[in-house]
Design brief:
The structure is a single chain. The protein has 541 residues and is α+β, with helices and mostly antiparallel strands. Among the domains are: 10-85, Zinc/RING finger domain, C3HC4 (zinc finger) (Herpes Virus-1, 2-Layer Sandwich); 202-290 and 321-355; 359-535, Jelly Rolls. The protein is built from 6 helices and 24 strands. It has a 7-stranded antiparallel beta sheet, with helices on one face. A hairpin with a 5-residue loop joins strand 12 and strand 13. Helix 4 (183-291) packs antiparallel against helix 6 (328-355). It is elongated, with a radius of gyration of 56 Å. The protein starts with 24 loop residues before the first strand and ends in a 6-residue tail after the last strand.
Length: 541
């Protein structure tokens, strides 16, 4: 039997009426071919019987005969088209294991044959009774991986103990005592978990995008802050440079004026001396001429007319004292220092105003207070009460020194608080890490986790090893404490004078930090009985 020419197109086997591949083709007497159903329906709707292609009229309705040859060719062409319409296998798809040459996409996989089939090669499984009993599933790649390597059986169960896929025989040997479930059941569990993860991931992504925005905003804010500080610093340094140059010019002018005064005095004396020298020289010449004459009469007559000696100064007591420049440079530097102090005070005031923006609200923790300390109800004041209160044991409590810390702690960022020390003669305040010694007598230094300012009447120190002695202002009434945890910085300020007292830099913080207060003891006369008071920040220009 002739086969369809693979070079023919679909048009060679298409009905002129339905434009589809011939189905039961018939031929008219004029030689044109149609599907029997198409031409029959066409003539049923016409008054005259004519050919739809050439319009030839027929007197009577033609008796149509099946075109056997065309019918066979159309059937072969239709089969060829169906095969070609099957998609070729893509890289991510499962290929047919039976196809030779160009592999087609598999439509089913057989769990009995362990092979995958395209639509054409699947036909025996749909026709043969024995093969119809095989389990067909959606196409699966690498079916050998779905088999138990030990028992050569399908992996269709899941061991929940070891979280692995097993076959039926595994449950009777290595996994006999383990809970197992069908793959589908575990699949649903894992799918639910994946669904939860899938739902959580967008939220995690959003959180990270938000964190990126926070970081970007922080960098932008830091950039603006840096520009502002650079501008302020530029103004300050420009002013200082101007002040230095002015002091230098004034110093140079003062020295030059003193030098000019000396030179002027010397010039006047030199002119006077030169005039006396000239007068004396003239008299000397006249005396010399007269002394060489031998005429007695002339000498005696001329001597009477000899001029009196010119008046002269007693130069033994006259001197030009060199100018003293002692103190000139010092006075200029004192003036410069005064100007610098004024600029520093302005700078400290601006710095204090900036750190005050990081004010935090803190209250003292009574569970940490030494038994002799008395705290106010609002947790803002503390003073020494002399009487030892009977309190329950608490590992957080300080039992040897008059210390107390706040309820609040800080593990990152910046914070600032102020403590009133008015009328106090002795106190400690600052910050301390969480793990400081609360029952022993360890000295409070950065090494032991305490960054403290200490006042004892007329002395002020930053507690270190050795301690740093600082100038104490008589009017010190309120101390500000600023901490930049991430930068490792602890700074103290005289709030009323708006002056920086001291900064501990390059500190290493690895634990939460707590604001720390110690009002110290007071004597029987009541000295140092005033409380330390955590005060609200009152920002002023």
């Amino acid at each position: 039997m002739a086969s369809a020419n693979t070079c023919w197109s679909e048009e060679n086997f298409s009905c002129p009426i339905c434009l589809d591949v011939f189905n039961n083709p018939v031929t008219t007497t004029c030689g044109h071919n149609f599907c029997r159903t198409c031409i029959t329906k066409f003539w049923d709707e016409q008054i005259q019987y004519k050919c739809p292609v050439c319009n030839k009229l027929f007197n009577t309705r033609p008796d149509l005969q099946v075109n056997t040859f065309l019918s066979e060719l159309a059937a072969q062409f239709r089969t060829t088209v169906r095969v070609k319409e099957q998609l070729l296998v893509e890289p991510a798809e499962v290929p047919c294991d039976f196809c030779t040459g160009t592999q087609l996409k598999a439509v089913k996989s057989c769990l009995e044959c362990f092979m995958s089939f395209c639509q054409t090669h699947l036909e025996p499984h749909q026709r043969v009774a024995r093969l119809q009993k095989h389990r067909l599933v959606e196409p699966m790649d690498r079916l050998e991986d779905r088999m138990c390597k030990k028992h050569d059986r399908l992996l269709e169960l899941f061991c929940q103990t070891e979280q692995v896929c097993v076959c039926q025989f595994c449950t009777e040997t290595d996994h006999k005592s383990h809970p197992v479930v069908p793959l589908k059941e575990e699949y649903e569990v894992k799918t639910a978990q994946l669904g939860k993860i899938e739902a959580e991931v967008p939220q995690m992504i959003q959180e990270r995008k938000q964190k990126i925005k926070e970081i970007t905003d922080t960098v932008e804010l830091s950039s603006k802050d840096a520009d502002r500080v650079i501008a302020i610093g530029g103004q300050v340094f420009t002013a200082l440079i101007g002040c230095v140059e002015k002091c230098r010019d004034e110093f140079n002018q003062t020295v030059q004026e003193k030098l000019k005064s000396t030179e002027k005095q010397a010039d006047a004396l030199i002119k006077e001396l030169e005039q006396e020298i000239e007068d004396l020289s003239n008299r000397s010449s006249e005396v010399k001429r007269l002394s060489h004459t031998e005429d007695h009469l002339h000498l005696l007559q001329a001597f009477r007319s000899l001029k009196d000696p010119p008046p002269t100064r007693d130069w033994t007591t006259v001197e030009v004292r060199p100018q003293s420049y002692v103190g000139t440079l010092r006075r200029s530097l004192d003036q410069l220092e005064e100007t610098l102090n004024m600029e520093m005070k302005k700078l400290h005031g601006a710095e204090l105003k900036r750190v005050q923006q990081y004010e935090v609200c803190v209250t003292l923790d009574p569970d940490t207070a030494h038994p002799q300390l008395i705290l106010s109800e609002d947790g803002k004041q503390v003073h020494h009460g002399r009487v030892v209160k009977i309190l329950p044991d608490n590992p957080k409590r300080f039992t040897n020194y008059m210390h107390v810390i706040t309820r609040q702690s800080f593990s990152s960022g910046r914070f600032y608080f102020e403590v009133q020390v008015k009328d106090k003669t002795k106190w400690y305040l600052g910050v301390a890490r969480e793990s400081i010694d609360r029952i022993g007598q360890t000295k409070g230094t950065p090494v032991t986790g305490q960054w403290l300012l200490y006042c004892d009447k007329i002395w002020l120190f930053f507690m270190d090893n050795p301690s740093v002695r600082l100038p104490l202002r008589a009017q010190l009434q309120k101390v500000g404490v600023f901490v930049d945890y991430d930068e490792g910085l602890v700074s103290f300020y005289d709030v009323e004078a708006r002056v920086h007292i001291y900064s501990a830099t390059r500190c290493t913080f690895s634990e939460p930090l707590y604001p720390f207060l110690c009002p110290s003891r007071h004597d029987y006369e009541g000295n140092n009985s005033a409380p330390l008071i955590i005060s609200p920040v009152n920002q002023t220009d």
